[in-house]
Amino acid sequence: MGRIIIENRSYSFEEIQAGKFNETDHYFTHALHFCQSWLSNQQTFELQTSGSTGMPKNIQIARSQMEISAKATRDYFQIRENPSLLCCLNTWFIAGKMMLVRGMEWKASIYLVTPSSKPFTSPNLQIPYDLVAMVPLQVEHCLNDEMGLSGLKQIKQLIIGGAPSGDGLINKLLDEKISAYQTYGMTETVSHIALAPIVDIDLTYEVLPGVIIGTDERGCLWLEAPMAKEHRIQTNDLIALNSPTTFKWLGRADFTINTGGIKVQPELVEKAIEKLIYEIIGEVNFIIGGVPDESLGQKVILIIEKDQLTLDKADFLKRLASNLPKYHQPKEIHFLPEFVRTDTGKINRIRTLELLCSNLSSSS
């Protein structure tokens, strides 16, 4: 019964397997060729990692891994027979491809649209949907748009991934009573292996069926998952393990700032100051980073994605400091017109910090 709907055109899975589709848009053609390979029982697929913490790389993923992942998601949400799905993520990457795989495995009606910040503006969409995956930016735009908000409210289960959702976004989802989950996963685990229901501001992740987790001596997550090729995957994600199946995500160990012998986790500082930044500057993108310092080793700085603006930096730093322990307080504020991003739209912290340092060196 499954089918893929693109604008006003509908293809049954049988037609796609036989190559009976005619699309002029390269994006749709590429997605349908992937579906044709899947429906023809291809056993391995080459995927590219997102590159959020280093250079993107191509890896081989087995069909069985993707099948296991799709089944685990279906079991977790208890998806009904022949569901309706919206695929609005980039199908060049794992998150988008897995929406197609889920739809094919579940014999779903898959509404396929070009990835954009406002997916509900695409023509001929039929709601409601049983499952939709989005990145935080898409959700933010939908919440601020009448058509987008109406679309969000017609989703039975919304999963959000690709980057953590900020407190502001979470509060908006709670205010609008959107049924949403933050995901945790990676290309190597073919999409998510844990989900955090967004029921309050403090997220707790629960692993999918069959996933085993623990921490190493640094407090970083390791996992064993039936959808992963490696027996055990060691991550650089610092977590607080609540139980054998639940955890809280604290940040990346490879982004940790060592200032005066105190280890500072940028993501936690960002969470603490987000509200104040939004109140004073507006809803800008920003990150906390560490740069070399003669006395401290590294010092904490705030980088804002914006051209220079009139701002009393000394006063603003004092206001930020009132929300933070001494060594977590930013010592400087810098502006960049544009952050460096990965192909999937995530902020590349390491490259952005390198860009800032390069700019500072050339101007000194």
Condensed summary:
The chain is of the alpha/beta class and 364 residues long.
Overview of the molecule:
This protein is α/β, with parallel strands linked by helices and 364 residues long. The protein has 2 domains: 3-206, ANL, N-terminal domain (Rossmann fold, 3-Layer(aba) Sandwich), CATH 3.40.50.12780; 256-363, 2-Layer Sandwich (GMP Synthetase, Chain A, domain 3), CATH 3.30.300. The chain has 10 helices and 20 strands. It has helices at residues 13-17, 26-39, 63-77, 94-105, 136-143, 146-152, 167-175, 266-280, 313-321, 349-363, and strands spanning 3-6, 9-12, 44-48, 58-62, 84-87, 109-112, 129-134, 155-160, 180-186, 191-197, 205-207, 212-215, 220-224, 233-243, 246-252, 257-259, 262-264, 286-293, 297-305, 332-336. The strands form 4 sheets. A 13-stranded mixed sheet has the order 2-1-6-5-7-8-9-10-11-15-14-13-12. Strand 14 and strand 15 form a beta hairpin. Helix 2 (26-39) packs across helix 4 and helix 5 (136-143) packs across helix 6. The radius of gyration is 22 Å and the shape is globular. The mean pLDDT is 91. Residues 49-195 form the AMP-dependent synthetase/ligase domain. Keywords: Ligase. One of its GO terms (molecular function) is medium-chain fatty acid-CoA ligase activity. This is O-succinylbenzoic acid--CoA ligase. It comes from Mongoliitalea lutea.
